[in-house]
Design a protein that fits this description.
Layout lengths: L3 E2 L2 H20 L6 E7 L3 H16 L3 E7 L5 H13 L5 E4 L9 H7 L11 H8 L8 H14 L6 E5 L6 H10 L3 E5 L6 H5 L4 E4 L17 E4 L3 E3 L2 E3 L4 H5 L4 E2 L6 H20 L2
Parallel strand pairs: 1-11, 2-3, 2-4, 5-6, 5-7, 7-8, 8-11
Antiparallel strand pairs: 9-10
Helix pairs in contact: 1-10, 6-7, 6-10
The structure holds guanine (GUN).
The site of guanine has 8 residues, from strand 4 and helix 6.
Length: about 280
């Protein structure tokens, strides 16, 4: 058996085209959605992400505001910038690129963002809303994974889902989204016992551990849908958390790296910015 490859690049392009059409409609009402991205320091990977976020924001017709600050920016100055963006009616979405340089209080910074402009869905109010089934801003990477899963599987009700990774950015919100769609969800992590055996019970396996080629084909239930969230830079180039060659022999479907979840994350960021704009206007 050879798994179907889930084409995140194509799905994300279709999503961005739909977003661009909405943005064009808003323009006739004099509304331009605006996304502000704040980057502290010179981390090369973060710089690449922020550049492509800016480019894709402009491509769908939204306004992009980039704020690049030195790594030693004091917390007060960062909070003052966030307060200014919160008050700016041209800014509908605010994203502070993580991780922050050492010395800054990540929770305080995230929770200073107005919840209705929190397009990352990391504010404690949005986390709580998602967990309690209220209308929330949903984190972009898990939202992108959910869209691919729904597109591929239809209903997720009753399926066994295993999420490897318990981060606030991916693992925990991914589990909440799968639960909201009535999957039976297990969150696995570095202390989970007999992880391969647990994974073999999964109809849906989401790998978000940040370890290259961590999940191998013998961990995968035949026919399972495998979502690879990993983006690991290795000497062999960019690889996921799933060992592609062995996974392809067993899985029913697999998201590739690159070209799977990655492009969905930015498309979902634009979708969240559009949602924030729609809520702000009405
Ligand atoms: N760093 C890695 N992923 C993300 C993300 O989704 N949002 C932000 N703000 N920073 C990140």
């Amino acid at each position: 058996m050879t798994a179907q490859i889930i084409d995140g690049t194509a799905f994300a392009a279709r999503l961005r085209a739909r977003i661009a059409a909405h943005v064009a409609k808003l323009a006739t009402q004099g509304i331009t959605p605006g996304l502000a991205v704040v980057l502290l320091g010179e981390d090369p990977a973060s710089q690449v992400y922020v550049r492509s976020k800016g480019r894709m924001t402009r491509e769908v017709g939204m306004a992009s505001f980039e704020h690049r600050l030195p790594a030693d920016t004091p917390q007060d100055a960062l909070l003052a910038l966030i307060a200014q963006l919160n008050a700016d009616p041209a800014v509908n979405g605010i994203l502070v690129q993580l991780p922050l340089p050492a010395g800054l209080d990540e929770a305080a910074v995230i929770n200073a963002i107005a919840p209705e402009k929190d397009v990352d869905g990391f504010h404690i109010l949005n986390v709580g809303r998602l967990a309690t089934g209220q209308k929330a801003m949903v984190p972009c990477t898990p939202l992108g994974c959910l869209m691919l899963l729904r597109d591929h599987l239809g209903s997720l009700a009753g399926l066994n889902a295993v999420v490897i990774g318990r981060s606030n950015i991916v693992g925990k919100p991914m589990a909440q989204l799968l639960l909201r769609d009535s999957a039976t969800v297990t969150i696995a992590h570095s202390r989970t016992s007999d992880l391969p055996d647990l994974c073999r019970r999964a109809d849906i396996l989401v790998a978000a551990v940040g370890r290259p080629n961590f999940v191998t084909g013998d961990w995968i239930r035949p026919g399972a849908t495998v979502i690879d969230v990993g983006i690991n830079r290795t000497e062999a180039g960019l690889v996921g958390d799933v060992d592609r060659a062995s996974a392809l022999q067993v899985a029913g479907a697999l998201t590739p790296v690159p070209g799977g979840v990655g492009p969905m994350t930015i498309a979902c960021l634009l979708a969240n910015t559009l949602t924030a704009t729609a809520r702000a206007n009405g």
